[in-house]
Specification:
By secondary structure, this protein is α/β, with parallel strands linked by helices. It has three domains: 178 residues, P-loop containing nucleotide triphosphate hydrolases (Rossmann fold); 78 residues, no CATH class; 58 residues, no CATH class. The protein is 42% helix and 23% strand. It is built from eleven helices and 15 strands. A six-stranded mixed beta sheet has the order 8-12-13-5-14-15. Strands 2-1-6-7 form a four-stranded antiparallel beta sheet. Helix 3 packs across helix 5, helix 9 runs antiparallel to helix 10 and helix 9 runs parallel beside helix 11. The longest helix has 19 residues.
Length: 349
C-alpha cells in the first residue's frame, strides 16, 4: 500500500496544502520530506497521516489518496471524512507504523528479535546456535558497509537479547550506543519482522547517526520497501540522506506567500556533494555560520570597490585568517582577485 497524494485544507501551518508522492504517475516506495524547522514535517506525519490509518480520523475537507492491490489488481482510493464514516472496517487502514524522532523502540525490537529466534527454533527446527548464527548473518547482510562494532550473541535464560563487541560479551540493546540502538530498533527489527504492504513513517531517521551512516541508511530502507511492497516516508534535516536518494523521491517544504508549499522538481540530488544539497535543495543562504559569512561578504565588497589597501580591510582580513585559516578557499579567492586587480591597475599605468 502506498500514498499517492494528499490534501490538507486548514491545519496549523498547512493551508490549502497539496503533496504528491508520485513520479510519472507511479507512487514512490521511498520519499524524503525535507525542510527547515517549522515547515511542518513532523506535523504532517504525526498529526495528519498517522491518525488517518491508526485512529481512522481525518481533518474536514482533507483527503489522502492511496493505491493498493486486491485480487492481483491495482486499485486507487480516496480517504476522506465520508469514507472514514462509511467504511471504518477497511482493513488496510491498520497497515501503518510510525517511528518518532529520537525515540528508540527498544522493547518492540526485543520482542521482534525474540519472535524471530523462536520461529527459527520451534517452527524451522533449528538449534539455538544455528538460529543465533542466522540472525548475525542477517545483521551483517543489512549493514555490510557500516563497520558495525557489535555482533548478535543470542538470548539468555531471562529472555534478554544480547550482543557482544570487543569489550564485552553481554550487551543488551539498552547498553548499545545511541546510533547502534537507532539501527537495531528500527532498520534491523523491520527486516526481522513480517511487515508487508505497509506505510512506514520515520521522523528524523538521522537521529544519533554518524554522517557516514546517514549516507547509507536511506538505501537500507529503500531495499526493505522494495522487498515487501512498503512505502517508507522519511522526514529529515539531513543533507546526507537527501544526497543518497534520487530527485524524484524528494519533497521539500518551503514557505511561499505565508503558506507552506511542497517543491518536487529538482535538477538532481543523488550523489551530490553535501554543500550543493544544502544550497540548492535546502536553500541555505550560506554554508558558514552567519557572522563569518557576513564578514566574508563585506571583505569581497571592499575588494570590488578597490578598498583592499585600507586599514579596515587589512584588519578584517587578518581577523578572518585567524578564524578560518589562511588556506581557506574563500580567502584564497579574495587574494587571487586582489592580485588580478593589481595587475590590471599596473597595465593601465
Amino acid at each position: 500500500m502506498k500514498i499517492r497524494k494528499l490534501h490538507i485544507d486548514n491545519y496549523k501551518v498547512f493551508q490549502d496544502f497539496n503533496l504528491d508522492f508520485t513520479n510519472n504517475g507511479k507512487a514512490q516506495s521511498l520519499v524524503a520530506i525535507a525542510g527547515i524547522n517549522g515547515s511542518g514535517k513532523t506535523t504532517l506525519l504525526k498529526d495528519f497521516i498517522y491518525p488517518i490509518f491508526h485512529k481512522k480520523t481525518i481533518l474536514n475537507n482533507s483527503f489522502i489518496q492511496i493505491e493498493y492491490q486486491e485480487n492481483h489488481y491495482n486499485k486507487t482510493l480516496n480517504i476522506d471524512t465520508n469514507f472514514i464514516s462509511d467504511n471504518v472496517s477497511f482493513p488496510k487502514l491498520q497497515n501503518i507504523l510510525f517511528y518518532q524522532a529520537g525515540v528508540t523502540e527498544n522493547q518492540s525490537a526485543k520482542e521482534i528479535i525474540i519472535q524471530f529466534i523462536d520461529h527459527l527454533i520451534y517452527e524451522q527446527d533449528q538449534k539455538s546456535s544455528e538460529a543465533y548464527f542466522a540472525t548475525q548473518e542477517i545483521l551483517q547482510s543489512i549493514f555490510p558497509d557500516f563497520n558495525l562494532q557489535i555482533e548478535f550473541k543470542g538470548i539468555d535464560k531471562r529472555r534478554q537479547v544480547l550482543f557482544k563487541n570487543e569489550r564485552s560479551d553481554n550487551i543488551t540493546i539498552d547498553d548499545l550506543s545511541n546510533g547502534e540502538q537507532e539501527l537495531i530498533t528500527k532498520a534491523f527489527s523491520l527486516y526481522l519482522s513480517d511487515v508487508k504492504d505497509h506505510i512506514i513513517l520515520i521522523d528524523e531517521p538521522e537521529s544519533s547517526l554518524h554522517p557516514n551512516w546517514q549516507s547509507q541508511i536511506a538505501h537500507i530502507y529503500q531495499e526493505f520497501a522494495n522487498k515487501n511492497n512498503n512505502q517508507i516516508i522519511l522526514a529529515t534535516h539531513s543533507p546526507h540522506i537527501v544526497a543518497s536518494i534520487h530527485k524524484e523521491q524528494i519533497r521539500v517544504l518551503v514557505k511561499q506567500n505565508h503558506k507552506i508549499r511542497a517543491i518536487d522538481s529538482f535538477t538532481g540530488s543523488y550523489g551530490w556533494r553535501v554543500d550543493r544539497v544544502l544550497l540548492e535543495i535546502f536553500r541555505l543562504q550560506g554554508l558558514r555560520t552567519p557572522l563569518v559569512e557576513r564578514k566574508l561578504d563585506h571583505l569581497r565588497k571592499m575588494i570590488f570597490s578597490d578598498q583592499y589597501t585600507t586599514e579596515e580591510f587589512k584588519h578584517l582580513e587578518n581577523e578572518l585568517m585567524e578564524t578560518i585559516g589562511y588556506d581557506d578557499m574563500d580567502l584564497s579567492l579574495t587574494r587571487m582577485e586582489i592580485a588580478k586587480r593589481k595587475i590590471k591597475s599596473e597595465a593601465n599605468l
